[in-house]
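Cross-check.
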Amino acid sequence: MAEISKPRPGENMRLLDALQYPLPIGGIVSILHRASGVMMAVLLPLIIWLFDTSVTSEISFDRFASAFTAGIGFVPGILVKLVVLGLIWAYLHHAMAGVRHLWMDATHQVTKEFGRSSAIATAVASIGLTVVLGAKLFGLY
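Predicted model, tokenized:
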């Protein structure tokens, strides 16, 4: 007599069904870690241009600084600032989440409690530092 196998849990789950379940903060930080890495990779030409323009000469530095007020081509300066703010967040979040993963791998602290608390610390620290650097970027201090 042939045995009937049951489908594995989640095997027939659709994307809309999966979105009904709340994702833990560790999962959100993990997804944002990947997204920040992709964001930095996609915007790497802008990063290289910004660095090259800022260090070549005094005239090119003035051109670099004017990109934040006058814009670049048809892109207004506020949009340049927002993109750079996104890059600041991406770098900070990616670095902090990477250190979090390295710490968990090195110390073997792979518990649910440590994963949750370290994910919260990563999110709070990366957002907090982004706010501080964003305030400097937008001239608040």
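The chain is about 70% helix and 0% strand. The chain has a mean pLDDT of 89. Passed to J.P. for a second look.
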